[in-house]
Amino acid sequence: MLRAEFLWTADGWRRDVRIDGAGGGGSCARFVLPGMPNLHSHAFQRAMAGLAERRGPGDDSFWSWRETMYAFASRIGPEQLRAIAAQLYVEMLRAGYTHVCEFHYLHNAPDGSPYADPAAMSLAIVEAAREAGIGLTLLPVLYMTGGFDGRPLSERQRRFGLSVESYLRLLEGLAPHRSPTMQAGIALHSLRAVPEAAMQAVLDAPVAREGAIHIHVAEQIGEVQDCLGIRGARPVQWLFEHASVDARWCLVHATHLDDAELRAIAQSGAVAGLCPTTEANLGDGLFPLPDYLDAGGAFGIGSDSHISVSPVEELRWLEYGQRLATHHRNVAARRTGESVGQALWERAWRGGRQAAGLPPMTDVDGDAPIVLDDASPLLAARTEDNAIDGFLFAGNTPLVRDVLVGGKWVVRDFRHHDQDAIAARYRKAVEALAAA
Ligand code: NGQ
Ligand code: ZN
Predict the structure, then answer these.
(1) Which residues are catalytic?
(2) How far is the CA of 103 from the centre of ligand 2 (A)?
């Protein structure tokens, strides 16, 4: 049992709230927030964070990073994936993410043939989430072509490839694994990787009648140009002309938008899946946040390549990128007197829940609360009016003390209950990968 002096809810702060959870003693806390959904993750990339930061022979770019990533991906099997994902999910929980949408496309064996159990890699993710105790929305990804021109997958992309039939079978096979903490949705890798007919076939299939639908879109200028050249429209424009994009959709990145595209996303109710630290690391560009917020657009945050695993850093970068570009301050708060921290946390929380296919919450009692460390000097003399600003903008000491998911305290006093064993297994897995 935990007594919270202030609990942040969709309707603002509530005072003196009792929170019950198994696996921990009683205590008090001053500030409790709803845990953040992480709406975009490629778990395996956690193990290569920092390994693509050396200058290559040409102009390094997203596309040269992608080659490094492919080489890395080709060495990972189900056991390694499970070890890496479990470590990542522990790090997420300790940072304040309580749910993860796993955009999972590493389906096949390294030579491109299916595993004996075609769901082997998907189930490694399910197991990792269960071990760590994080909520999961598993998004198996359809990936079929190597470009807008429909070219076949390259050697290294063959691990990702599924036909529409095998994709739908994979989704059906995962149905029995659903639970209150394991949802499933669908994902199309990108317009580059999914031909139009395949996209329509998946969207028309019975499994696509409900749940979240995610797609990478308009992340790089090269992608916008290729789409214009081959499909005669910009990526987001093309998507809206060929699919009924609505609140079930999450458009990941959506960096390069013209005015009409920005308005189309905002009006559709879809969530823009923003991944500021990865987008910065890959040199993607800056999402047009102020205009999008003014148009009433929804967004959430993802840690994507896991170059950073922290909702604090994602939200800070989201705001600071705009300050640097516009030469203004307090950009994400659009109303006079509004707190930037509260505006960011609340919108990303709502958008993240929506993108994860979780029901909207009117009350966070049933959600996954995170408890801030009110003993930290960073929160000294902070009140409910500025505690979230302190959490997001002051210093570099993690302030997430306790985390409750599914009625269980998974983090207590900064420690995850199984962090040592999970870290030891991760270390062994990445050492084996490094030696391979
Ligand atoms: C991915 N990641 O699927 O992991 C992609 C790179 C691609 C990001 N876009 C591969 N951040 O888009 O083709
Ligand atoms: Zn991605």
Answers:
(1) 253, 304
(2) 7
